Amino acid sequence: xxxxxxxxxxxxxxxxxxxxxxxxxxxxxxxxxxxxxxxxxxxxxxxxxxxxxxxxxxxxxxxxxxxxxxxxxxxxxxxxxxxxxxxxxxxxxxxxxxxxxxxxxxxxxxxxxxxxxxxxxxxxxxxxxxxxxxxxxxxxxxxxxxxxxxxxxxxxxxxxxxxxxxxxxxxxxxxxxxxxxxxxxxxxxxxxxxxxxxxxxxxxxxxxxxxxxxxxxxxxxxxxxxxxxxxxxxxxxxxxxxxxxxxxxxxxxxxxxxxxxxxxxxxxxxxxx
Length: 273
Description:
Elements: H1 3-21, E1 35-42, E2 45-50, E3 53-59, E4 61-63, H2 78-90, E5 98-102, E6 114-121, E7 127-129, H3 130-136, E8 141-143, H4 152-164, E9 179-181, E10 193-206, E11 209-214, E12 219-224, H5 225-231, E13 244-253, E14 259-263, E15 269-271
Parallel strand pairs: 3-6, 9-10, 12-14
Antiparallel strand pairs: 1-2, 1-5, 2-3, 4-8, 5-6, 6-7, 10-11, 10-13, 11-12, 13-14, 13-15
């Protein structure tokens, strides 16, 4: 093989690798039908016209901060998550306000919403996986179920990428001014992203949840077992008993008046001593 031919092959291979690395959200799926989006509810919920009806579509696998208070508080990054989704659908979309839907084994959610993987075409006609893009940019946390797991590995990589690149939720990760003792938590912390420092009194499990309680039981961390199985490789939470730790996440308050963080991954924990 002559020198010029070798150079050409190496150059072509390099272009291929670069194009692949810069299009991690491009999708090789063919859809026959798109659906008109009538409204963006929040970062992970939209309304579309589907088979003659206007219905809500909940994005599978992701959980964005809330833009309306209810069971969960108003989230610090809720508005940014909303605008990220809205801009992708209405600004960067070739067919503005139209999306493609992919379903998993469970098509309908608890609240009667469609559960879907949502895609859009950019201005060049390339198909993008919106659920993954939201997660990758740090505007969502993982929310896994056994019957909606078709793209679970994509979401695991996307969440780790958001963490490693300090995107969105993780943009405060290295900020010392985000640290607060569990005994100093107040209503001003609800919905905000914090490092909560506390001494672990007990670690337990019940059903699909794992629970880490503080010394005076006024604060606790919960982890859904689906996320625990996906994101905890080296940290055994049962080893945290009687240790001082800090945990990173959005602060909630439960119906009993206790402060809570719903954690998703082991990189949201730091053992102090």
